[in-house]
Design goal:
With about 180 residues, this protein is an alpha/beta fold. It has a single domain, classed as P-loop containing nucleotide triphosphate hydrolases (Rossmann fold, 3-Layer(aba) Sandwich). Helix content is about 50%, strand content about 15%. It contains nine helices and five strands, in the order βαβαααβαβααβαα. It has a five-stranded parallel sheet. α2 packs across α4. The longest helix is centred in the middle third of the chain and has 16 residues. The two termini are about 20 Å apart.
Length: about 180
């Protein structure tokens, strides 16, 4: 295992958990959205507003492909929609993917603190988007239910899945 991809809805904790997991593994951490912003010289919200979601998804897939070619020893946090795109899931088919399954009320509370989330502005659409994406996230290699705002809880679970011999846990495939 050389790369781990953390997937889930916006506000699930992908960047926070991914960064802490990478530190625990002694690996590099990459946030796909940060990579896109650096490559495009624009914020995600500005790309959405100026070029539309379809163009953003194209750029996102290109960034994901670039990362796949240089991702050894890396934990990569994907944007909330990246894993919902079939071609992206196909790119990640042979990779380890971990879904942070965070309840809707928790992501609503977390996302309410930010104004840069273009898909979070309408609460009804936000809830519908959350529900529609769950079936895609469920295709991840592993699922970690988020039951706490303490990222160390999810990091410990992820570490246990990835390194069962070091954590004292055994893993028989798909989790939770």
């Amino acid at each position: 295992m050389k790369t781990v991809f953390v997937v889930g809805f916006m506000g699930a904790g992908k960047s926070t958990v991914g960064r802490a997991l990478a530190a625990r593994l002694g690996w590099r951490f990459v946030d796909l959205d940060d990579e896109i912003e650096a490559a495009e010289g624009a914020k995600i919200s500005d790309i959405f507003a100026g070029r539309g979601e379809a163009e953003f998804r194209r750029v996102e897939t290109e960034a994901l492909r670039r990362l796949l070619n240089s991702a050894d020893g890396t934990v990569i946090a994907l944007g909330g929609g990246a894993f919902t795109i079939e071609s992206n899931r196909e790119l990640l088919r042979d990779q380890v993917t971990i879904w942070l399954d965070c309840p809707l009320d928790v992501v609503e509370r977390r996302v309410a603190q930010f104004t840069h989330r273009p898909l979070a502005r309408d609460p009804e659409r936000f809830a519908a988007l959350y529900e529609s994406r769950r079936e895609h996230y469920a295709k991840a290699t592993h699922r970690i239910p988020i039951t706490s705002d303490d990222p160390d809880v999810a990091v410990a679970q992820a570490f246990g899945l990835l390194c069962p011999e070091e954590s004292g846990h055994s893993s028989g495939g798909r989790s939770a």
